[in-house]
Amino acid sequence: MRESDWDDVIASAMGPAAGYLASLPERPVYRPADPDDIRALIGGPLPEEGSDPAEVVGALARDLEPYVTAHASGRYYGFVIGGLHPAAFGAELLAATWDQNAGLYAVAQGVAIAEEVAAGWVLDVLDLPADSSVGFVTGGQMANFTCLAAARHHVLREVGWDVEADGLQGAPKVNVVVKTEKHSTIPRALRHLGLGDSTAIEVASDPQSRIDPEAMDRTLRDLEGPTIVCAEAGNINFGSFDDYQAVADVAERHRERGNPTWVHVDGAFGLWARAATSLKHLTSGLERLDSWSTDAHKLLNVGYDSGLAICKDSAAHRAAMSIQAAYLVQADGGVRDQMDWNPEFSRRARGLGVYATLRSLARSGVNDMITRTNRLARLFAERLSASDFVEIVNDVVFNQVLVRWIAPDGDHDGFADRVLAAIQADGTAYFSGTTWQDRRYMRISVADWATDESDVERSVAALLRCAEAVE
Ligand SMILES: Cc1ncc(COP(=O)(O)O)c(C=O)c1O
Q: How does 423-448 read in b/e, with b if 16+ C-beta sit within 10 Å?
């Protein structure tokens, strides 16, 4: 075997990595950049002659680090982006080092068992039915895709149609029911699955963006045949939760009228409310539904990318995803081949981060982390609402705070965008915006295990300072 100088390359990556992680508490969270500046540093034509790997890695660390957004900072509140738990970081280093193709048990036994164990822990900590199946995917988008593929399989199989073999051409119509305030990855998953996004029937949401179960009931009463309903745990703007008992009751009645029905829950971040004793009530009845997607890279603070597709009907999940090929060595019971539960064939050992984070935090640590997330979101709302510049729009039930900036001159939308640009340029903290019902808002998403009270106080002070400056 040709030898490599691993020590040099490890030193050139790990020295800067350690420096970066140590700088997180004080480094600017974000720095607006000119893309040409970055291109000038790392671009140019493909070199004709090679370079020493350690030099390449050292230059990459030096040149790109100033343009890295500090997602793992305690003061990053943009979109819904989780931080980096140290156990996840360490496990990712091992995953990169071992370079396992974690698609088949036979190819990478150790990491297959780590994912098997992690899958059981995920079901346990989220209190979902213990015989549900779990696929480790790249994120919420692919988790929605995977669960909805299982849903498509199930509702069509119930009417005697094999969608995996025969596709959708000539298939019985599948009714898809979504809420008006769904996340954009739901229509995208429907597109990928050939179900179409504009053909999905929208059900009204209430003022906190929760599905209206009575409207859902009226909609379903007009439908016949295979039906997929998409509910949500944790709305992107409001952080709100649907009434799952009511949704399950409505779905049950639809099923009793002879319609094969599957209810999927997009719980990219909200599903983690189930892991906190004081917040679990928000998800009451969710366990009665059929599939759940969530992210580990959001509230669990596993590194990117890491999502989880969970189905109560494991046979439907497997039928939608599994693959056979004569040259593969496939498990025949007792162990799991990950490629039976994911859309990917070859893949990295993504589940190691989930394993290590759950092992390190344990049940009590996850409970504390999710409880703290909610407490800090409420602290944001309390502090900001004391200012005349701010109106808190949502009921802060979980980790999201929706802020309306109130401009003295009445141009509230323009003020929101000016405050956002100012705080992003300031670098103390990062917040992102949204347009809801034609108005501009700022969203605060508390999603980092590292965030503490002092981060919130410092971020609020910076926001109000920016608001004063641009009012
Ligand atoms: C409710 C919801 N669903 C799905 C997604 C997509 O998740 P991912 O970015 O991990 O694909 C998000 C992302 O923020 C989300 O908030």
A: bbebbbbbbbbeebeeebbbbbbbbb
> For a substitution probing ligand 1, which of 185, 188, 271 has the most ligand atoms within 8 Å of its CB?
185
The answer to whether the pTM exceeds 0.85 is yes
How many Å apart are CA 387 and CA 394, to the nearest integer? 16
**pLDDT (tens digit, 0 to 9) for every residue of the chain, 471 residues total?**
998 889 999 999 999 999 999 999 999 999 999 999 999 999 999 999 999 999 999 999 999 999 999 999 999 999 999 999 999 999 999 999 999 999 999 999 999 999 999 999 999 999 999 999 999 999 999 999 999 999 999 999 999 999 999 999 999 999 999 999 999 999 999 999 999 999 999 999 999 999 999 999 999 999 999 999 999 999 999 999 999 999 999 999 999 999 999 999 999 999 999 999 999 999 999 999 999 999 999 999 999 999 999 999 999 999 999 988 778 888 877 999 999 999 999 999 999 999 999 999 999 999 999 999 999 999 999 999 999 999 999 999 999 999 999 999 999 999 999 999 999 999 999 999 999 999 999 999 999 999 999 999 999 999 999 999 999
Residue nearest to atom 5 of ligand 1 (CA): 140
Pocket-testing residue among 295, 310, 446, ligand 1, by greatest number of atoms within 8 A of Cβ: 295
Whether the CB of 290 sits within 6 Å of ligand 1 = no
Helix (H) or strand (E) holding 179: strand 175-179
Q: Is 401 helix (H, G, I), strand (E, B) or coil?
A: strand
Report the C-alpha gap between 228 and 406 in whole angstroms.
41
**How far is the centre of ligand 1, averaged over its atoms, from the C-alpha of 184 (Å)?**
8
Largest CA distance in the chain: 71
CA of 272 to the centre of ligand 1 (A): 13
Q: In 133-243, which residue ranges form alpha helices assigned H by DSSP? A: 140-157, 163-166, 185-192, 213-221
Measured from the Cβ of residue 12, the count of other Cβ atoms closer than 10 Å reads: 21
The helix (H) or strand (E) run that includes residue 286 is none
Nearest-atom index, ligand 1, CA of 298: 10
| Ligand 1 near 443 CB (within 6 A) | no
Q: Residue written as tokens 């909609």?
A: 219
Report CA(178)–ligand 1 centroid distance (Å): 16
What are the backbone angles phi and psi of residue 457, rounded to the nearest 5°? -60, -45
* Rounded to 5°, angle at Cα 368 from 87 and 302: 30
From ligand 1's centre to the CA of 137, what distance in Å? 12
Q: Are 351 and 100 in contact (CB under 8 A)?
A: no
**Distances in whole angstroms, Cα of residue 385 to Cα of each of 380, 391, 420, 421, 429:** 8, 6, 17, 21, 18
> Across-strand partners of 308?
136, 294
